[in-house]
């Protein structure tokens, strides 16, 4: 387990400039690829490595990046100016060992992100859940309003060009991840905290240390800036006690600076009213499902109002917002079977996503294919996971997708244990280890009218796309 450290003494100030050769270890990661795209557009020479090819690495190669689908140290040269690593890269990685041997400067992804943000007016969106969609909403509003922001988002957003963009405007929107306290490398003038729950316990150990880290984040917002927070979260209330800036709250339940009131949900379209300090602000609509997305829209509205975006521009952008990939993404409809892919990998995310699916598809049989992400997360949150599948009719668990897991964690937990705990909660659940076998089983078992949702932060989305192909 990694040691928990106190507040950072100072922030990192290096950033690559045009002509610098930058090597990314794990370049196919969603955040790493986003920064790589920005640096290519700024004139840097980008190279890197990953363990597999993907649409993200293909996009980078088309932009001019040279990528090695190995991490064996063979692709890095002494001409490299700086090496960027994600939090998933360990010290025994051959590429990283080569960089150390050659004496090349090694920096974290979040440090480069923080250095880029300092050059503009930074907007950092944090939280255990919802930060990708909220970041995407804010970026979409700003871009369609003509403000041309730079943004780095933890998911692909096709409507605005992907997971990153180098804008000419003075705004920089970034999804701020709390793992490894990496969000403390940022320098935001505007911040968002969507919620705070137990997660990344392989690093933080307990909720108190998580709240403390978010308190550090809240204290980073400049005194002249704004912090927008969920007003229905006791952990958030504790964290923001250390904020030095103006704080605005949002909620669906409590009296808040920004309060949402859902008016109707029909054919997947949610209509809701927004009240600002109990005064009617306007009526909005979203075509992505779930009350949790109305909360995300409230946060985005608060931020963009503060920036000065016109109300009608916000309404239009949110009404046309299609969401980020892997956030309740409808992959296809074949033989009257609806196939959806979602990134949910925490008990709360699973629960709210299945609740949204049940509301959107009343009376239909819902299949959930879940690939747990990390042995340690599965072990720490086992009881929560077992209670999160109540709105699914049929559940299938795949093997756990390993990430940063020690041998101890791999030995202590497996999907069969999760299956047994979930079955004890009255859920119809099966354990099928391999994704290819899950696809085959679904191909035989699904019936017209069924809804299939694949869930997880690993590669479980393959099942959704392969099932569309098999049923086609």
From TrEMBL:
It is found in: Cytoplasm. This is UDP-N-acetylmuramate--L-alanine ligase. Residues 22-121 form the Mur ligase N-terminal catalytic domain. The chain crosses the membrane at residues 21-40. GO terms for biological process: cell division; cell wall organization; peptidoglycan biosynthetic process; regulation of cell shape. Residues 125-304 form the Mur ligase central domain. Its EC number is 6.3.2.8. GO terms for cellular component: cytoplasm. GO terms for molecular function: ATP binding; UDP-N-acetylmuramate-L-alanine ligase activity. Keywords: ATP-binding, Cell cycle, Cell division, Cell shape, Cell wall biogenesis/degradation, Cytoplasm, Ligase, Membrane, Nucleotide-binding, Peptidoglycan synthesis, Transmembrane, Transmembrane helix. It catalyses: UDP-N-acetyl-alpha-D-muramate + L-alanine + ATP = UDP-N-acetyl-alpha-D-muramoyl-L-alanine + ADP + phosphate + H(+). Cell wall formation. Pathway: Cell wall biogenesis; peptidoglycan biosynthesis. ATP binds at residues 127-133. Belongs to the MurCDEF family. Residues 326-458 form the Mur ligase C-terminal domain. Coiled coil: none annotated. The keyword Phosphoprotein does not apply. It comes from Candidatus Jettenia caeni. Its main location: cytoplasm. InterPro entries: Mur-like_cat_sf, Mur_ligase_C, Mur_ligase_C_dom_sf, Mur_ligase_cen, Mur_ligase_N, MurCDEF_pg_biosynth, UDP-N-AcMur_Ala_ligase_MurC.
């Amino acid at each position: 387990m990694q040691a928990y450290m106190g507040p950072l003494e100072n922030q990192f100030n290096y950033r690559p400039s045009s002509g610098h050769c930058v090597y990314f270890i794990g370049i196919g990661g969603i955040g790493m690829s986003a920064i790589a795209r920005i640096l290519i557009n700024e004139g840097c020479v980008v190279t890197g490595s990953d363990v597999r090819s993907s649409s993200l690495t293909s996009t980078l190669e088309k932009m001019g990046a040279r990528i090695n689908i190995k991490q064996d140290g063979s692709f890095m040269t002494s001409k490299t100016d700086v090496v960027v690593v994600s939090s998933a890269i360990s010290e025994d990685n051959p590429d990283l060992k080569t960089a150390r041997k050659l004496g090349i400067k090694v920096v974290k992804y979040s440090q480069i992100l923080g250095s880029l943000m300092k050059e503009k007016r930074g907007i950092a969106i944090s939280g255990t859940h919802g930060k990708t969609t909220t970041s995407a909403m804010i970026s979409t509003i700003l871009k369609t309003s003509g403000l041309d922001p730079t943004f780095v988002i933890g998911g692909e957003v096709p409507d605005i060009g992907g997971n990153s963009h180098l804008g000419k405007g003075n705004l920089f929107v970034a999804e701020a991840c709390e793992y490894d306290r990496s969000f403390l490398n940022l320098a935001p003038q505007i911040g968002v905290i969507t919620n705070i729950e137990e997660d990344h316990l392989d690093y933080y150990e307990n909720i108190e240390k998580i709240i403390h880290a978010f308190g550090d984040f809240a204290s980073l917002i400049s005194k002249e800036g704004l912090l927008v927070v969920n007003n229905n979260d006791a952990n958030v209330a504790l964290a923001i006690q250390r904020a030095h800036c103006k704080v605005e709250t949002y909620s669906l339940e409590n009296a808040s600076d920004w309060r949402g009131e859902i008016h109707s949900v029909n054919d997947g379209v949610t209509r809701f009213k927004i009240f600002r300090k109990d005064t009617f602000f306007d009526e909005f609509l979203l075509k992505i499902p779930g009350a949790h997305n109305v909360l995300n829209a409230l946060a985005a509205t608060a931020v963009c109002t503060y920036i000065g975006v016109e109300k009608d521009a916000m309404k239009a952008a949110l009404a046309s917002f299609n969401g980020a990939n892997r956030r309740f993404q409808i992959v296809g409809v074949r033989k009257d079977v609806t196939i959806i892919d979602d990134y949910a990998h925490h008990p709360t995310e699973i629960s709210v996503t299945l609740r949204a699916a049940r509301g959107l598809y009343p009376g239909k049989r819902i299949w959930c294919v879940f690939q747990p992400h990390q042995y340690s997360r599965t072990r720490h949150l086992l009881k929560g996971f077992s209670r999160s599948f109540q709105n699914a009719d049929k559940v299938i668990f795949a093997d756990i997708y390993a990430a940063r897991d020690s041998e101890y964690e791999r030995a202590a937990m497996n999907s069969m244990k999760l299956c047994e705990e979930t079955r004890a909660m009255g859920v119809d659940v099966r354990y099928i280890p391999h994704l290819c076998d899950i696809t085959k089983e679904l191909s035989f078992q699904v019936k017209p009218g069924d809804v299939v949702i694949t869930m997880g932060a690993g590669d479980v989305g393959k099942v959704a796309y392969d099932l569309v192909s098999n049923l086609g």
